[in-house]
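The authors assume throughout that readers already know how a fold can be written as discrete tokens. A single example would do more here than another paragraph of explanation. An entry of this sort, consisting of the sequence and the corresponding backbone structure tokens, reads as follows:
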Amino acid sequence: MIRVAIVEDDKAVQTQLADYIRRYERQFGRMFELSLFDDGDEIVSDYRAVYDIILLDVQMRRMDGMAAAERIRQMDKDVLLIFITNMAQFAIRGYAVDALDYVLKPVPYFAFSQQLQKAVARLQARQKTFLTVPVEGGLRRVDVATLYYLESDGHKVRLYAEDGELTAPGTLKSFEEKLAGKPFARCNSGYLVNLAQVMGVQQNLVQVGPYELQISRPKKKAFMEALTDYIGGGVR
């Protein structure tokens, strides 16, 4: 499911874009989850990084698309931005916020479908897996590949990633279940390690990125088997 936000203050255009997405679904067999916003300030207010694609009108009454894009980029560097505009010179500014491209009004279906196809292809090329983490004031999407390890901390879990740390409510077991099928294994009861980030093992210590973690005796055999499987493609 690809999550798309349409930010457009012209109701007729907003409806047209939504209809185009449903037409694209029928044509290509893709599924989209749509969220509609009537102005730029609506999406940036309490913004949550849960969208894959955002379609932004450049000119809106309260907050124009460029200002909204700048705010969004401060909170979400991964979402794909496509501008909808009737003036190409405004859309060119979109490269400053790493916009994927723009579509000129009036919006023809073919041109729109080409941009949507481009965005879908970009998402497929990324092949990222995101973990949606509840944090104070909302939700945050974390790229699973950037995680070093997760640590149990009472009724909370600390996540250590390439871009810093965050704390979320829950248990390590609940996060372990969310990451089922991904290369994660426990080196002890309190740490869940991303095997892709393991730099080496020395006796009872595992180097995970910049961190050195203790491998417990009860977990050592299963952890080393999981690590060997990951490195060797299942050959022990």
